[in-house]
Every structure is written in C-alpha cells, then in structure tokens.
Amino acid sequence: MWDYSFVLPDFIILYIFLVYFFAHPRLPIKLNHSFLRVIIVDFCAIFFDTFSTLALENSVHFSPFILRVLNSFYFIFFIFRIFSFFIFTEDACGVRRRRKSLIRILSFAVFLLFEAIAVSNLFYDVIFSISPEGIYSRAPYYDSIYVCAAFFIIFSFICIALYRKKLNPFANFALFAVNFTMLVGYVLRILLPTYLIMNLFTLIAIIIIFISFENPVLYLAGKANAFNKKAFYSLFLEFDEKDSPLVLGFVINNYNELREVYSGKQMDRGISLICQYFARTYPNLVRFYLHDGRFVFVGRDNTQTEKLKKEISERFKKSWSAGKDVEIFLEPKFVQIAPDVSFRTAEKIAKSIFVGLKEAEKLDNLSIMINRETLITIEENILIKRHVEKAVESNRVEMFLQPLMSSRNYRLIGAEALARIRDEEGNLIPPVKFIPIAEKNGRISVLGEQMFEQACKFIHDHDIDKMGLDWINVNLSPIQFLRPDLNERFTSILEKYGVPAEKIHLEITEETMIDYTLLKKQIQEMQNSGFQFVLDDYGSGYSNVSRIKKCPFINIKLDMELVRDYFKERDTFLPHMVQAFKQMKFTVTAEGVETLEMVEAMKKIGCDYLQGFYFSQPLPAEEFAKTYGNNM
C-alpha cells in the first residue's frame, strides 16, 4: 500500500499557484513561461503518479493495457518535469536559447533519449512491466530515471556556477536551493519507495521559485498598474538582433515641479489614470512605469511607433481628472529607438532609454531619438565604469596638481588636487566623463579619500615652502560630504603624515549646500579639527548669497563659465559680485583663466587668485614638484 497523505495538499497548492499566476499581470518572458511549464508538468506528473498508483492497487478493475498507459504517462511526465526544472534554471541564469551551446545541445539530446525510453514502455518492458494479472514490477532500465535526474541536477549546478556572476547572491542561493531540494527528493524516493514523497519536494522547489523569481510584487510598480524597472530590464535582456519591437518612452515634463503644484496625492492619481488609460486603449502593449513620471511601452510592431506617439500626444492635450474639480494638464517628452538600431545590444538600449528619459527633462525638444551614437556613448560609459572600479580598488587613481597663482605677483601660492584615471592603453580619461560615473556607482567617496591622502603624502614628501606652496585644495563630493565619520577619517590621515590641517583646503560645490543644516554641522565639526573650506564653482548651480554669508568659507572660486561669460559681454555684475564677496571677508579665485587679457581683467576686478591654462594645465604630482621645486 502506498501513502497518499501528501497528494491532496500538493494538488491544492499547485491549483492556487495556477490561479495566482493568471490573476496578475505577467511579463512575456522565458522565465514566466518556464515557471508555468513547471507548474503544469508537475500537476500532470502528480496526477498520473496518483492515479496510476490507485489503479495498481485496484488492478482487478483495470486492464493491463490501461495500467501500462497510466504508468507510462507518469514516467513521461516525470522525465519532462526533471527537464522543466533544468530549463527554468537556464532561464533564471540568463542563458539565451537562440544561441547554440554544448550544454543546450547535450541536455536536449539527453532529454529526448530518456523520453524515448519512457515512451517505448507503452510497447516494451523497459522501465517497468505489467503482468497479465495486473502486477507491476520494475524492468531492467528502471534506474534510468535516476540517471536522468542526476544528469540534469549536475547540469543545473554547472549552469549556476558558469553564470553566477550574472546573478545576485540571493538568486544564486535560490537556484541552488531549488536544485538541492530536488536532489533530496530523488534520494528519498529511492529510500522510501512506498511514499509518494517526491511530489512534496517538487512543490517545495516551486515555492522557492515563486518567492525568489515569480512573486508579482518583484515586477510591479506599486499602484501604477504597470511593470517596474526590474521587469523592464528582464524583458530587454531577451531581445536580440532578430527582434525589432516597438519601444516608445516618455517623461512628464517638469514632473517634480508639478508634484508641488498639484500635490503628490493628485499626481499619483494622475499616474494611475494614465496607466489605466493605456491598459484599456493598448492592451497588447507591455506597460512600464519607471518612477518620476517616466513611462515606456513595448510592443511587437515597430512600424506603429509614430502612430502611437501621435495618439499619445493627442490624448495629453486633454486633461486628466485627478479628483473632484481637479484637472491635471501634463506634457509628454518622448524617447524612441531609431529604426536602424539593432537589438543585438538590447541591454545597452535599455540603459540608453533610461539616459534618454533623464535627458529629455533637461532639453527643450519634445522628442529624443536613440541612435547608434547613443549606444556607443553607453558602451563607452560601461568601459569607463570598469576603469574607475579597477583604479579605485587598486589605488591607482593619480593626483594631478594645477597651480593657483597670486594676482598680486603671479607667483605660486596654492594648488588644486585633481583626480586622473587612465585606460588600458595608458591614456587619460577626461574627468568630465569618469567623475559622474564614480558618483553614480558610489566610488566617489573612496576616490575622494584617496586624493586627500595623496595630497597629504605630497606635502609630507616635499618641501612645499621652497615651492612657495601654502596649501593644496582637495575636492569633496556631495556624497562624500554626507559621511558622518568624514572628520575622523580625514583627521587620522593628517596624523598619519604629520600634516597640519591648514595646509589642506577642502573644496565643496554649491550642490552640497542644499541641505544647509547638514552643511553647517559638518563644517563646524571639521573646522574644530582645523580644516578650512572653499566654495567651488560659484555661479554654476544653486547660487544663494545669503547661505554663503552664513558659511565660514575662506575663499570663493568663480566658475569658469561665469568668468568666460564676462568676456563675451562685459558688464558690472561680476565686478560688483567680487567686491561684495571681498566686503564679506572672502578671498576670490577666478577659474578658467586662459589669456593675458583674462589675467589682467580678473586682477583688475579684485580677484585674489588665478587658476587656468594661461599659467599651467594640471600636472602629474612629481612633474609639478620638479617644475616648482626651486620657486623661491
């Protein structure tokens, strides 16, 4: 007699999974198709396992042919279930099915071989036999089902190992847990043949899959009735050069300002209405909401992109009702893919859409086209990101120094420490390219600290008094400035090299001044340790004279664009600004000084220090030391 105590709960839970699967929006991706296949095949395997066993227990009521058919179908689905779990593992690892590989060819061949063995049992006693009296017994190749299971479990673990770097640690662990659970189930099936226990372990594996990969919460964008960023990338990773989907994105113009005008609640209601409208009007499009008023729609036919764009524009000319007597008027800015762009680089295209949606907010154009040049830029940024990570991790970020000259006698008085990173060929990567990337990937704090330490080491190793060098300016990024332990870390570095704090001036930008409370607290704490602060790039962003007046800066550095604009159209604004700063007891530095005319003009309006290519471009630290070593 067999024990059926696990069977009914298995059926009930699988049924709940099926209902839940179809009750929620699902991405049209391989992973979801694989999960559905696993559920259906497992359901069929349990069904035939249960009823073939019941039929054997009541064999007097069934012909040997019926018993053979029921048991043969069980083994067919048993092997299919093994293969289905392997395919899910492949899809979760991101293996492309269209690409032929040794693992794929071999695994499919093995699957067909063992399925052929199972099917042949309809006619021959291969895995099992049924006597004329209806008695079931194992045949010579019964253990082939365990050979099949062992093969696909081993191949699953190989697949996880090969693609582990593409997955996050949680996904790696989940896939390992799924296959290990299946392995335990097969072992117990061998040890406890009278218990229908294997189905319990496949169910546990399915539950792990659902929690880790198939939970709708992982892919839905809150209340927007659309998919999120994770889902967006999951879909795009499946595209290749043979695909030409419709992809159209748009961002609501001035979204953050509109949230203040209409209130967050009403704008959220508007977002929900937009998603509902598109769900009704374009049910065949896959809808994504990427937060901050950014939408992307993906369909099959890219020839309909312009038509869709026109229809969306027409709809947005009307208002969206966000509540009683509340009408919201919104303007979309579009991002679309150029027709000649190949989806062979689908991941880069996905990233370029994000970049395009961000850029669209800043531009006056109502439409941005992503072309091959855009993808080249994305590819370049990915490469720069790798260079930044390698340079920071191996402490190979170089310090260059650009001199700050006194306007009184044009002699060296200070220098600014500037980070430089080289590519694999030894060429310098422009800071304007790698600094934003370092800020985005979180490396800027470590990079900034390395610059601070190199500046301290330079002061320790060289006779800066002989150079006429009174201080070195070191830049602090807004992210770095948020560190609560910044003062302790910098103070310990000063002590390590025996450098007085006044020899290092810390430059912060106006962007850092947005959170004035934090700014004041951090500056005060670091001032107590002897640090002095310089406001960098004044005039490039959040200019607020009243805040500057309250902050204990010793120097204001005029942004180079502000300086250049003065020479395009001279007026009294910049001279009056410089004099105002000097009356507030600030010294003033002019950046971007490139000609003798600029030098003389900046000196005339009252700038104390001058920095720019007229005097010197940034130099490697040792070259700077040689150039200014005998400056006295």
From TrEMBL:
GO MF: cyclic-guanylate-specific phosphodiesterase activity
Pfam families: EAL (PF00563)
SMART domains, alphabetized: EAL
Xref: InterPro entries: Cyclic-di-GMP_PDE-like, EAL_dom, EAL_sf
Organism whose genome encodes this protein: Treponema ruminis
Membrane spanning residue stretches: 6-23, 35-56, 68-89, 101-124, 144-163, 170-188, 194-213
CDD domains: EAL
Residue ranges that the Swiss-Prot or TrEMBL entry lists as coiled coil: none
Boundaries of every EAL domain copy: 381-632
Signal peptide region: none
Keywords: Membrane, Transmembrane, Transmembrane helix
Protein name: EAL domain-containing protein (Putative c-di-GMP-specific phosphodiesterase class I)
